Amino acid sequence: MIPINYAQMLQLALPELIVTVAALIVLAIDLLFLRQYQTRVRFTIAAGLASIGCAAAILQLLLTPAQANVLDGMLVANPLTHLVQIALLVLTIFTLLLSADSTFTEHVGEFVLLILAATVGMMFLVGSQDIVIIFISLELLSLSLYILTAFDKRSARSSEAALKYFLFGGMSAAFLLFGFSLLYGLSNSTSLTYIASAIHGQSLTPLLVIAIVTTVIGLGFKVAAAPFHFWAPDVYQGAPVPSAAFIASGSKVASFFIFFQVMVIGFAGAEGSATWRHFTPGWVSVLAVVAVLSMVLGNLVAIVQSHVRRLLAYSAIAHAGYILLALLSHTQQSLGALIYYVVTYALATLGTFGVIAVVEKQTHSDRLSDFDGLSRRAPVLSFCMFIFLLSLAGIPPLAGFFGKFYLFVSVLAAPGSTGLLWPVVLAIAMSAVSLYYYLQVLKRMYVASPPAGTEKMQAPILSQFVIVLLAAAIVLLGCTPHLLLRWMMEAIQASGL
Questions:
Q1: Would you tell me how many other CB atoms lie within 10 Å of the CB of residue 5?
Q2: Which of 452, 296, 472, 298 minimizes the C-alpha distance to 377?
Q3: pLDDT tens per residue, the chain (497 residues)?
Q4: Domain boundaries in the chain?
Q5: Transmembrane stretches, by residue range (predicted)?
Q6: What are the Cα distances from residue 469, in Å, to 98, 402, 456?
Q7: Which of 6, 151, 339, 470 could bridge to 351 as Cys pair (CB 3.0-4.6 Å)?
């Protein structure tokens, strides 16, 4: 029996505990003292208090011991997990601030509580290498997101999207749990490290193949990779804007990180190969097929979309394909590229949803035609949208360009990966396709004339400040990527991954 150091466990879980306490405080204050105030006021106060709680958790993460491992990976603390958790908390703060001007619900305390509960789930998710804790954390995250999707009770589309999200999520959870149960049966352990030791050197038995496929299905759903993406377009369009922004940003960071951890650590020794004309059975070849399907389907279907939110959903599917390329090479450099890519993608996506929220407030829709002449109605927001979309398209000198460049280089620089040139070439070709539909939005904003009789848009000061800050971060991280990259690579090397 391994002795449990409860003091150490409490110290490692203290950032999550701080966020949980902040959520309960926000709920109590909203229920007891703020019910008589306007919804905007309540949202502003709740978002401010929750942001303070997240900032306190960030401070605690900076003070927590850099290296710790409790119960064979049940709770793990190292510079890399701290870095990813800090990124998640920052994205949560931005989401909360963008929601401060919302009016879609009167249950403000409950909404903010669910945002913070999802954040706690994400923090535990990236801070564990145990399949039981990983599954529980994923379910805490998923259940929170299902409810957040349905939070606009006045919208039938929101309820429909939440139902689809829940049904597909339940099926994906069943696949993931089945895969994890097979891994436990093969290794008699729930630790990713011990699982890898047990299956290393084994041939690909039918049970191991089924475990690989079901795990990829379960985690592929979380990152909206094709063909497990069916929930994404409806959720992106039907959910309240803050909920959709959170699903498209913070949850993607946590899900991609744990996807890398599970496959690279847990399935070490069963990689196989996806090199040209030398496919070898293993999880790398499975992910290569998923990545290709995601890139092709996401980009081609995005071209015909008439709503910006659905366009972003199919764009997210395509980006999932790009990011999965980092798993094909599974090196320290590709892990750094994955984290840089998904963090900068999350920032750009958050900013884009922030602009969409302002447009929807005036037009009550997110059709492409609603963005006609936006540069004359809201010049600052239009310029920020210009930065976000070009970053998503991978245009220099923005963060999205460096993210793609570094990702592709990391794949080609991996030992023995010269045969992986084919998915990189395909990714570059699909990036060129993506430029078309991003430019369609920009054409509407800068070339088309605004509808007759429309007035200038008055964006809330706080929302405008957050959007400008996100745009500045995209430019800064594109021009000086070493600010984040150097910190990431030092954390990865110190963590021994």
A1: 13
A2: 452
A3: 445 667 777 888 899 999 999 999 999 999 999 888 998 999 999 999 999 999 999 999 988 767 787 877 888 888 999 999 999 999 999 999 999 888 888 999 999 999 999 999 999 999 999 999 999 999 999 999 999 999 998 889 999 999 999 999 999 999 999 999 999 999 999 999 999 998 876 678 899 999 999 999 999 999 999 899 989 999 999 999 999 999 999 999 999 999 999 999 999 888 888 887 777 888 999 999 999 999 999 999 999 999 999 999 999 999 999 999 999 988 889 999 999 999 999 999 999 999 999 999 888 888 999 999 999 989 999 999 999 999 999 999 999 999 999 999 999 887 766 678 899 999 999 999 999 999 999 999 999 888 877 778 888 899 999 999 999 999 999 999 988 888 888 888 887 66
A4: 294-497
A5: 12-34, 41-63, 83-100, 107-125, 131-151, 163-187, 207-232, 244-270, 282-304, 311-332, 338-359, 380-400, 420-439, 460-484
A6: 12, 19, 22
A7: 470
Straight-line distance from the first to the last Cα atom of the chain, in angstroms, rounded to the nearest whole number:
28
3-state helix, strand, coil in the chain (%, to 5): 75, 0, 20
Q: Are 192 and 259 contacting, i.e. CB atoms less than 8 angstroms apart? A: no
Quote the distance between the C-alpha of residue 70 and its chain's center: 26
**Locate tokens 């054409």: which residue?**
443
Residue found under tokens 């070493």: 482
Rounded to 10°, the helix 250-261/79-98 angle is 160
Amino acid letter, residue 495: S
Name 424's Cβ contacts closer than 8 Å, sequence gap at least 6: 325, 408, 411, 412
Helix 131-149 and helix 108-126, axial crossing angle in degrees, nearest 10? 160
Strand partners, 77: 68
